[in-house]
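To assess whether ligand presence alters the predicted conformation, the chain was also submitted together with adenosine-5'-triphosphate. Input:
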Amino acid sequence: MLKVEHVTKYYGDFLAVDDLSFTVKKGEIFGLLGVNGAGKTTTFRMIMGLLEPTKGTITLDGKPIDYTVTDTIGFLTEERSLLTKMTVKEQCLFYGNLKGMSDKEIEERLDALLEKFGITAYKDKKIKELSKGNQQKIQFITAILNRPRLLILDEPFSGLDPFNVELFKAEILEMSKAGSIIIFSSHRMEHVELFCKKLAIIMQGKPVLEGYLSDIKEQYRKKNILIKGDIASTDLEKIKGVLSVENTAEEMIVKIDDIAVAPAVFKVVSKHKNITKFAVEEPSLNEIFVAKVGESYEK
Ligand code: ATP
Protein backbone atom coordinates (compact mmCIF):
# COMPACT_ATOMS: atom_id res chain seq x y z
CA MET A 1 0.00 0.00 0.00
CA LEU A 2 1.16 3.54 -0.75
CA LYS A 3 0.59 5.89 2.17
CA VAL A 4 0.97 9.64 1.86
CA GLU A 5 0.54 11.10 5.34
CA HIS A 6 0.25 14.82 6.12
CA VAL A 7 2.76 15.74 3.47
CA THR A 8 3.76 19.39 3.18
CA LYS A 9 6.30 20.91 0.79
CA TYR A 10 7.73 24.39 0.85
CA TYR A 11 9.94 25.83 -1.90
CA GLY A 12 11.62 28.52 0.18
CA ASP A 13 8.65 30.43 1.65
CA PHE A 14 6.24 29.15 -0.99
CA LEU A 15 3.82 26.46 0.17
CA ALA A 16 3.36 24.09 -2.81
CA VAL A 17 1.75 21.09 -1.01
CA ASP A 18 -0.24 21.60 2.15
CA ASP A 19 -0.99 18.68 4.49
CA LEU A 20 -1.87 16.14 1.81
CA SER A 21 -2.89 12.60 2.84
CA PHE A 22 -4.15 9.65 0.84
CA THR A 23 -3.64 5.90 0.52
CA VAL A 24 -3.65 3.68 -2.54
CA LYS A 25 -3.96 -0.08 -2.20
CA LYS A 26 -2.52 -2.83 -4.37
CA GLY A 27 -4.43 -2.98 -7.67
CA GLU A 28 -6.07 0.43 -7.20
CA ILE A 29 -5.85 3.25 -9.71
CA PHE A 30 -5.83 6.60 -7.92
CA GLY A 31 -6.47 9.92 -9.70
CA LEU A 32 -4.57 12.98 -8.49
CA LEU A 33 -6.25 15.98 -10.03
CA GLY A 34 -5.85 19.71 -9.88
CA VAL A 35 -5.58 22.85 -11.96
CA ASN A 36 -2.21 23.96 -13.33
CA GLY A 37 0.20 24.66 -10.51
CA ALA A 38 -1.90 22.82 -7.91
CA GLY A 39 1.06 20.72 -6.74
CA LYS A 40 0.67 17.41 -8.61
CA THR A 41 4.19 17.23 -10.06
CA THR A 42 5.66 18.20 -6.69
CA THR A 43 3.66 15.37 -5.07
CA PHE A 44 4.81 12.87 -7.73
CA ARG A 45 8.42 13.89 -7.22
CA MET A 46 8.09 13.37 -3.47
CA ILE A 47 6.52 9.93 -4.03
CA MET A 48 9.32 8.95 -6.40
CA GLY A 49 11.85 9.97 -3.78
CA LEU A 50 13.28 12.80 -5.93
CA LEU A 51 12.18 15.54 -3.51
CA GLU A 52 12.14 15.46 0.26
CA PRO A 53 8.84 16.52 1.91
CA THR A 54 9.25 19.43 4.33
CA LYS A 55 6.86 17.61 6.68
CA GLY A 56 4.99 14.30 6.62
CA THR A 57 5.83 10.80 5.44
CA ILE A 58 5.44 8.69 2.33
CA THR A 59 5.73 4.90 2.58
CA LEU A 60 5.33 1.97 0.21
CA ASP A 61 4.30 -1.23 2.02
CA GLY A 62 5.38 0.35 5.28
CA LYS A 63 8.86 1.39 4.13
CA PRO A 64 10.13 4.83 3.13
CA ILE A 65 10.73 5.29 -0.60
CA ASP A 66 14.48 5.46 -1.15
CA TYR A 67 17.06 3.98 -3.55
CA THR A 68 16.35 0.47 -2.23
CA VAL A 69 12.82 0.49 -3.64
CA THR A 70 13.09 2.81 -6.63
CA ASP A 71 13.83 -0.25 -8.81
CA THR A 72 10.23 -1.30 -8.33
CA ILE A 73 8.73 2.06 -9.32
CA GLY A 74 7.88 3.18 -12.84
CA PHE A 75 6.95 6.64 -13.96
CA LEU A 76 5.81 8.48 -17.01
CA THR A 77 6.37 12.16 -16.37
CA GLU A 78 4.95 15.09 -18.27
CA GLU A 79 8.43 16.18 -19.23
CA ARG A 80 9.72 13.71 -21.79
CA SER A 81 12.82 11.96 -20.57
CA LEU A 82 13.93 10.02 -23.59
CA LEU A 83 17.52 9.59 -24.66
CA THR A 84 16.71 10.65 -28.20
CA LYS A 85 20.04 9.77 -29.83
CA MET A 86 19.77 6.15 -28.70
CA THR A 87 17.74 3.51 -30.47
CA VAL A 88 14.60 2.18 -28.78
CA LYS A 89 16.40 -1.03 -27.83
CA GLU A 90 19.48 0.79 -26.49
CA GLN A 91 17.36 3.05 -24.31
CA CYS A 92 15.37 0.14 -22.89
CA LEU A 93 18.57 -1.79 -22.15
CA PHE A 94 19.94 1.31 -20.40
CA TYR A 95 16.90 1.90 -18.18
CA GLY A 96 16.18 -1.81 -17.69
CA ASN A 97 19.74 -2.46 -16.50
CA LEU A 98 19.44 0.50 -14.11
CA LYS A 99 16.38 -1.24 -12.66
CA GLY A 100 18.29 -4.48 -12.18
CA MET A 101 16.93 -6.42 -15.17
CA SER A 102 19.15 -8.70 -17.26
CA ASP A 103 19.59 -8.04 -21.01
CA LYS A 104 17.62 -11.22 -21.81
CA GLU A 105 14.69 -10.23 -19.57
CA ILE A 106 14.65 -6.73 -21.08
CA GLU A 107 14.63 -7.96 -24.69
CA GLU A 108 11.86 -10.48 -24.07
CA ARG A 109 9.65 -7.93 -22.37
CA LEU A 110 10.50 -5.22 -24.92
CA ASP A 111 9.64 -7.48 -27.88
CA ALA A 112 6.28 -8.38 -26.33
CA LEU A 113 5.42 -4.73 -25.60
CA LEU A 114 6.54 -3.46 -29.02
CA GLU A 115 4.31 -6.04 -30.61
CA LYS A 116 1.37 -5.09 -28.38
CA PHE A 117 1.75 -1.45 -29.40
CA GLY A 118 2.31 -2.27 -33.07
CA ILE A 119 5.78 -0.73 -33.28
CA THR A 120 8.08 -3.73 -33.60
CA ALA A 121 9.64 -2.13 -36.69
CA TYR A 122 11.02 0.73 -34.58
CA LYS A 123 13.16 -1.38 -32.25
CA ASP A 124 16.44 -0.35 -33.88
CA LYS A 125 15.39 3.17 -34.86
CA LYS A 126 16.76 6.23 -33.10
CA ILE A 127 14.13 7.74 -30.79
CA LYS A 128 14.45 11.19 -32.37
CA GLU A 129 13.29 9.68 -35.70
CA LEU A 130 9.97 8.58 -34.18
CA SER A 131 6.72 10.55 -34.26
CA LYS A 132 5.49 12.25 -31.06
CA GLY A 133 2.89 9.54 -30.38
CA ASN A 134 5.39 6.75 -30.94
CA GLN A 135 7.90 8.47 -28.63
CA GLN A 136 5.12 8.54 -26.04
CA LYS A 137 4.65 4.79 -26.48
CA ILE A 138 8.38 4.21 -25.95
CA GLN A 139 8.28 6.34 -22.81
CA PHE A 140 5.36 4.25 -21.53
CA ILE A 141 7.10 0.96 -22.44
CA THR A 142 10.21 2.14 -20.59
CA ALA A 143 8.09 2.96 -17.53
CA ILE A 144 6.46 -0.47 -17.38
CA LEU A 145 9.38 -2.59 -18.58
CA ASN A 146 10.10 -3.87 -15.06
CA ARG A 147 6.41 -4.46 -14.18
CA PRO A 148 6.59 -1.84 -11.41
CA ARG A 149 4.59 -2.35 -8.23
CA LEU A 150 4.06 1.43 -8.13
CA LEU A 151 3.40 3.20 -11.41
CA ILE A 152 2.99 6.97 -11.72
CA LEU A 153 1.39 8.23 -14.91
CA ASP A 154 1.31 11.98 -15.47
CA GLU A 155 -0.86 12.80 -18.54
CA PRO A 156 -0.10 9.42 -20.15
CA PHE A 157 -2.39 9.98 -23.14
CA SER A 158 -0.99 13.29 -24.37
CA GLY A 159 -0.25 13.15 -28.09
CA LEU A 160 -1.99 9.80 -28.60
CA ASP A 161 -4.75 9.11 -31.11
CA PRO A 162 -7.98 7.45 -29.81
CA PHE A 163 -6.91 4.00 -31.01
CA ASN A 164 -3.66 4.16 -29.08
CA VAL A 165 -5.41 5.61 -26.03
CA GLU A 166 -7.40 2.34 -25.94
CA LEU A 167 -4.20 0.27 -26.17
CA PHE A 168 -2.66 2.22 -23.27
CA LYS A 169 -5.84 1.89 -21.21
CA ALA A 170 -5.93 -1.87 -21.69
CA GLU A 171 -2.31 -2.17 -20.59
CA ILE A 172 -2.85 0.05 -17.52
CA LEU A 173 -5.90 -2.00 -16.50
CA GLU A 174 -3.93 -5.21 -16.93
CA MET A 175 -1.20 -3.86 -14.66
CA SER A 176 -3.75 -2.92 -12.02
CA LYS A 177 -5.27 -6.41 -12.22
CA ALA A 178 -1.78 -7.85 -11.73
CA GLY A 179 -1.56 -5.85 -8.48
CA SER A 180 0.33 -2.66 -9.35
CA ILE A 181 -0.49 0.52 -7.45
CA ILE A 182 -1.20 3.15 -10.08
CA ILE A 183 -1.38 6.91 -9.67
CA PHE A 184 -2.83 8.73 -12.60
CA SER A 185 -3.05 12.39 -13.41
CA SER A 186 -4.84 14.02 -16.30
CA HIS A 187 -6.74 17.17 -17.10
CA ARG A 188 -9.11 15.03 -19.18
CA MET A 189 -11.83 14.13 -16.69
CA GLU A 190 -13.44 11.55 -18.94
CA HIS A 191 -10.24 9.50 -18.74
CA VAL A 192 -10.06 9.84 -14.99
CA GLU A 193 -13.70 8.86 -14.64
CA LEU A 194 -13.22 5.68 -16.66
CA PHE A 195 -10.20 4.57 -14.74
CA CYS A 196 -10.03 5.76 -11.19
CA LYS A 197 -12.28 4.42 -8.47
CA LYS A 198 -10.55 6.71 -5.98
CA LEU A 199 -9.26 10.25 -6.41
CA ALA A 200 -8.20 13.51 -4.83
CA ILE A 201 -8.64 17.01 -6.19
CA ILE A 202 -6.02 19.44 -4.95
CA MET A 203 -5.99 23.21 -5.12
CA GLN A 204 -2.95 25.24 -4.15
CA GLY A 205 -1.50 22.08 -2.65
CA LYS A 206 -4.53 21.43 -0.44
CA PRO A 207 -7.04 18.62 -0.95
CA VAL A 208 -10.52 20.00 -1.64
CA LEU A 209 -12.09 16.59 -2.31
CA GLU A 210 -10.84 13.08 -1.64
CA GLY A 211 -12.35 9.61 -1.69
CA TYR A 212 -14.06 7.02 -3.84
CA LEU A 213 -15.59 8.39 -7.04
CA SER A 214 -18.92 6.69 -6.30
CA ASP A 215 -19.10 8.35 -2.84
CA ILE A 216 -18.05 11.71 -4.27
CA LYS A 217 -20.84 11.52 -6.85
CA GLU A 218 -23.35 10.34 -4.27
CA GLN A 219 -22.49 13.13 -1.83
CA TYR A 220 -22.54 15.78 -4.51
CA ARG A 221 -26.18 16.78 -4.17
CA LYS A 222 -26.51 18.55 -7.52
CA LYS A 223 -27.98 16.29 -10.21
CA ASN A 224 -28.99 16.52 -13.85
CA ILE A 225 -32.41 15.52 -15.14
CA LEU A 226 -32.64 14.50 -18.77
CA ILE A 227 -36.01 14.99 -20.41
CA LYS A 228 -37.32 14.23 -23.91
CA GLY A 229 -40.76 15.48 -24.96
CA ASP A 230 -42.99 18.47 -25.57
CA ILE A 231 -42.26 20.79 -22.71
CA ALA A 232 -41.11 24.39 -22.61
CA SER A 233 -37.96 25.39 -20.70
CA THR A 234 -39.85 28.22 -19.01
CA ASP A 235 -42.20 25.71 -17.26
CA LEU A 236 -39.18 24.14 -15.57
CA GLU A 237 -37.11 27.26 -14.89
CA LYS A 238 -39.83 28.47 -12.50
CA ILE A 239 -39.37 25.52 -10.14
CA LYS A 240 -37.50 26.32 -6.92
CA GLY A 241 -34.15 24.53 -6.92
CA VAL A 242 -33.80 24.38 -10.70
CA LEU A 243 -30.46 25.98 -11.54
CA SER A 244 -30.62 25.94 -15.32
CA VAL A 245 -32.36 24.38 -18.30
CA GLU A 246 -30.34 23.60 -21.39
CA ASN A 247 -31.72 22.41 -24.72
CA THR A 248 -29.51 20.12 -26.77
CA ALA A 249 -30.42 18.66 -30.18
CA GLU A 250 -31.50 15.43 -28.49
CA GLU A 251 -32.96 16.37 -25.13
CA MET A 252 -33.37 18.89 -22.35
CA ILE A 253 -30.88 18.96 -19.45
CA VAL A 254 -32.29 20.36 -16.22
CA LYS A 255 -29.71 21.06 -13.52
CA ILE A 256 -31.05 20.91 -9.97
CA ASP A 257 -29.23 22.02 -6.83
CA ASP A 258 -30.34 19.03 -4.76
CA ILE A 259 -31.73 15.57 -5.45
CA ALA A 260 -34.77 16.55 -3.30
CA VAL A 261 -35.90 18.88 -6.14
CA ALA A 262 -36.40 15.95 -8.56
CA PRO A 263 -40.00 15.10 -7.47
CA ALA A 264 -41.11 18.72 -8.05
CA VAL A 265 -39.67 18.59 -11.58
CA PHE A 266 -41.34 15.21 -12.16
CA LYS A 267 -44.69 16.63 -11.05
CA VAL A 268 -44.53 19.39 -13.65
CA VAL A 269 -43.22 17.08 -16.40
CA SER A 270 -45.90 14.45 -15.76
CA LYS A 271 -48.61 16.99 -16.66
CA HIS A 272 -47.26 17.11 -20.22
CA LYS A 273 -48.00 14.69 -23.01
CA ASN A 274 -45.48 12.92 -25.24
CA ILE A 275 -42.77 12.64 -22.63
CA THR A 276 -40.47 9.78 -23.72
CA LYS A 277 -37.66 10.21 -21.22
CA PHE A 278 -37.22 11.39 -17.62
CA ALA A 279 -33.91 10.35 -16.08
CA VAL A 280 -32.08 11.67 -13.01
CA GLU A 281 -28.34 11.35 -13.54
CA GLU A 282 -25.15 11.94 -11.60
CA PRO A 283 -23.17 14.93 -12.87
CA SER A 284 -19.92 14.16 -14.67
CA LEU A 285 -16.60 14.36 -12.84
CA ASN A 286 -15.81 17.33 -15.06
CA GLU A 287 -18.82 19.20 -13.65
CA ILE A 288 -17.85 18.35 -10.05
CA PHE A 289 -14.24 19.37 -10.68
CA VAL A 290 -15.23 22.74 -12.15
CA ALA A 291 -17.67 23.38 -9.28
CA LYS A 292 -15.16 22.42 -6.56
CA VAL A 293 -12.38 24.47 -8.09
CA GLY A 294 -14.79 27.42 -8.48
CA GLU A 295 -15.87 27.14 -4.82
CA SER A 296 -12.32 27.13 -3.53
CA TYR A 297 -11.43 30.21 -5.62
CA GLU A 298 -14.37 31.99 -3.96
CA LYS A 299 -13.16 31.14 -0.43
P1 ATP B 1 0.66 21.47 -13.90
O1 ATP B 1 -0.71 20.87 -13.99
O2 ATP B 1 0.71 22.84 -14.56
O3 ATP B 1 1.77 20.58 -14.33
P2 ATP B 1 1.23 20.95 -11.05
O4 ATP B 1 -0.04 20.67 -10.34
O5 ATP B 1 2.05 19.79 -11.47
O6 ATP B 1 0.92 21.86 -12.33
P3 ATP B 1 3.60 21.82 -9.56
O7 ATP B 1 4.56 21.75 -10.71
O8 ATP B 1 3.70 20.77 -8.53
O9 ATP B 1 2.08 21.92 -10.11
O10 ATP B 1 3.79 23.24 -8.89
C1 ATP B 1 3.11 23.65 -7.70
C2 ATP B 1 3.54 25.05 -7.35
O11 ATP B 1 4.91 25.03 -6.90
C3 ATP B 1 3.48 26.04 -8.52
O12 ATP B 1 3.02 27.27 -8.02
C4 ATP B 1 4.93 26.15 -8.98
O13 ATP B 1 5.19 27.42 -9.53
C5 ATP B 1 5.69 25.91 -7.69
N1 ATP B 1 7.00 25.25 -7.94
C6 ATP B 1 7.20 24.08 -8.56
N2 ATP B 1 8.52 23.74 -8.58
C7 ATP B 1 9.17 24.75 -7.96
C8 ATP B 1 10.55 25.00 -7.65
N3 ATP B 1 11.50 24.15 -7.97
N4 ATP B 1 10.82 26.14 -6.98
C9 ATP B 1 9.85 27.02 -6.62
N5 ATP B 1 8.53 26.83 -6.87
C10 ATP B 1 8.20 25.73 -7.53
